[in-house]
Design goal:
3 domains, 581 residues, binds flavin-adenine dinucleotide, globular, FAD/NAD-bd_sf, FAD/NAD(P)-binding domain, Helicase, Ruva Protein, domain 3, 10-stranded mixed β-sheet, G3P_DH_FAD-dep, D-Amino Acid Oxidase, Chain A, domain 2, alpha+beta, EC 1.1.5.3
């Protein structure tokens, strides 16, 4: 039996095993997930078809595409999953109204390229939402208008955006057409709004870091491996200078080891040039790192249902105010960096610009608003450089897949919305290199545990009854973990101490943190505070309150030696302190 057939059958059996674990009620399946240590033990025994370097949106997309085509892969992530750009996005699943606008600008030289970019992303927008319904939603965004010329301009612009979507859509989630709204309706959502009318258009939204986690869980249940805190330090090559594996370093176990693979995919985002240079020191750099910052505000500054797009701020950039997990996020800026930095911080200038642009739009006092800022974060957008670009606004958001002579497949640029497409295209290249020809799936793969095909209200009510939860908490678990919510809550209810709440304003408990350590590879408090839960993005004061508790849970569960605990507590607390206002 050839290897591909073997992996495909193993993958089917793994899924079958999942089905067999179902309890009496066929809806509530127990998902048997491996620990980080089990994944690493597999890594030493296996020879992989594909080694994926980087555990962000791109790496997770490649992993899922491998799983769906019967290839055996491992994702190696040097920090935590989604700790790069993939947890720090604006959380939009979109075609990009800004690029649509550029298509019609007289000065625009790459009209066709921009249109293709929007069309491709709009098609993927539908795919994204239908693949992962429980983590995503469509939502209306208001473009405020102060005169009839603007109203006509933005309405027809949004209509063309919608028509491009209708023309290129190949299935998946459907979006409503744009519409014009009057002052009364606007005031119901934005009490500070000054405009008399506006245009509503629709896009998608999601929980980015959780999405990486859910994609990896799906891949893992389909037989793929993954380990965080494993840095790729070198590439192994044979006498013909072809890649045969990687030299890796486990930062938790402090061990150096080799992993064998037929092909390596470089999904390292802003760090892509490092791996390209490791492969061939003569290549020229292609990545431009552009930092983007956001602020989190309380809901009183916006709407819990509508987004608000300021189409032109004082420097010509757009600014979004978006409802997200009970708060409003405001962003983004664009600041060119010399290199990709692991944890870039929001600069004073960006902070001021964000606040001032918001206050100018609504004519409110910036010093008052500043007191209410709940969190701030900054991410690095990995753009692919074209020599004719004059500014970062002009560096294309398109993606490129490069195959080196030794067989390194580098996936560069792009955006979250098109992660699935980038994954499929990267695996097309991989197949060319390793001589496999299994076709892409005809139907869109659903995430494991997608319950939204069932009656949503009933699902939430069942969960409320079964675990004695308020409605908002039941909704939180189902929209965060999909069907795995039952496994999480069973662990919460296993012992009385697991029910202990971390913070009175959030649904997180000791049991949920234990689940994230055991089955989602959380290994540092920041993994829990920023990416498994989104506390750090929602309320930075809350993380100072819960930090020590989370640390203690991890120290006990992971059996950290006492000496190590002291050093680690200090090092990690300093990391968290850096975020203080
Ligand atoms: C401010 C901002 C807002 C954005 N908003 C949106 C949006 O609303 N919608 C949208 O569609 N897109 C958005 N994007 C773009 C999107 O977030 C990125 O395109 C996407 O997250 C990139 O994913 P990635 O996996 O390529 O990179 P990353 O998420 O950065 O992942 C790369 C990973 O590689 C790891 N790595 C690096 N070197 C090594 C090594 N040697 N060994 C192992 N691992 C390594 C890193 O630790 C990192 O985790 C936004 C980006 C930014 C910065």
């Amino acid at each position: 039996m050839n290897r591909v057939a073997f992996v495909a059958i193993a993958s089917i059996l793994t899924q079958r095993k999942v089905q067999l674990q179902s309890t009496g009620d066929s809806r509530h399946i127990h998902y048997k997930l491996k620990s980080r240590e089990e994944h690493l033990a597999d890594a030493l025994l296996n020879e992989y078809d594909v080694i994926i370097v980087g555990g962000g949106a791109t790496g997770a997309g490649v992993s899922l595409a491998c799983a769906n085509r019967g290839l055996k892969s491992i994702v190696l992530e040097s920090q935590d999953y989604a700790s790069g750009a993939s947890s720090k996005s604006t959380k939009l699943v979109h075609g990009g109204v800004r690029y649509m606008q550029q298509v019609f600008q007289l000065s625009e030289k790459n009209r066709l390229e921009k249109l293709q970019l929007v069309a491709e992303a709009l098609r993927e927008r539908s795919n994204f939402l239908s693949m992962c319904s429980y983590l995503t939603q469509d939502f209306p965004t208001l473009i405020p208008c102060t005169n009839l010329f603007d109203l006509g301009y933005y309405y027809f612009g949004s209509l063309i955006y919608h028509c491009v979507y209708l023309y290129y859509q190949t299935g998946g989630h459907t979006f409503k057409p744009p519409r014009i709204v009057g002052k009364e309706e606007i005031q119901q959502h934005f009490k500070f709004a000054k405009c008399n009318y506006g245009v509503i258009y629709y896009d998608g939204q999601f929980n980015d870091a959780r999405m990486v986690q859910e994609l990896l869980v799906t891949s893992s249940l389909k037989g793929q491996n993954m380990a965080n805190y494993v840095e790729v330090k070198g590439l192994l090559k044979n006498e013909q200078n072809k890649i045969t594996g990687v030299q890796a370093f486990d930062k938790i176990g402090q061990k150096q080891f080799q992993i064998k693979g037929k092909c390596v995919v470089n999904a390292t985002g802003g760090w892509a040039d490092n791996l390209r240079l490791m492969d061939d020191p003569t290549v020229s750099k292609r990545i431009v790192s552009v930092a983007g910052s956001h602020l989190t505000m309380p809901q009183k500054y916006g709407s819990h249902q509508w987004g608000y797009l300021i189409p032109k701020t004082n420097d010509g950039r757009v600014l979004y105010l978006l409802p997200w997990l009970g708060n409003i996020i405001m962003g983004t800026t664009e600041r060119k960096l010399d290199n990709a930095i692991s944890d870039p911080t929001v600069s004073k200038e960006e902070y001021r610009w964000l606040l001032q642009s918001f206050c100018d739009e609504f004519a409110i006092d910036a010093s008052e608003v500043a007191k209410d800022v709940k969190s701030k974060w900054c991410g690095v957008r990995p753009l692919v450089y074209q020599s004719n670009a004059l500014s970062t606004k002009e560096v294309s958001r398109t993606h490129e897949i490069e195959v080196s002579k030794s067989g390194l497949v580098s996936v560069m640029g792009g955006k979250w919305t098109i992660f699935r497409l980038m994954g499929e295209q990267a695996v097309d290249k991989v197949q060319g290199l390793i001589g496999n020809n299994q076709k892409r799936l005809e139907n869109l793969p659903k995430l494991v545990g997608d319950w939204t095909q069932f009656d949503n209200k009933k699902e939430i009510q069942d969960m409320m009854k079964m675990f004695n939860l308020p409605q908002t908490y039941a909704a939180y678990f189902l929209t965060t973990y999909g069907d795995r919510a039952y496994d999480v809550l069973k662990l919460v209810h296993e012992k009385p101490e697991n029910k202990e709440s971390l913070h009175p304003q959030f649904p997180h408990t000791v049991g949920e943190i234990l689940y994230q350590i055991r089955y989602e590879q959380a290994r540092k408090p920041e993994d829990i505070l920023f990416r498994r839960t989104r506390l750090g993005f929602l309320d930075q004061n809350a993380i100072f309150n819960v930090y020590e508790k989370v640390f203690q849970i991890m120290a006990k569960e992971l059996k950290w030696p006492e000496k190590f605990q002291k050093e680690f507590l200090k090092e990690n607390f300093e990391y968290i302190r850096k975020l203080e206002f």
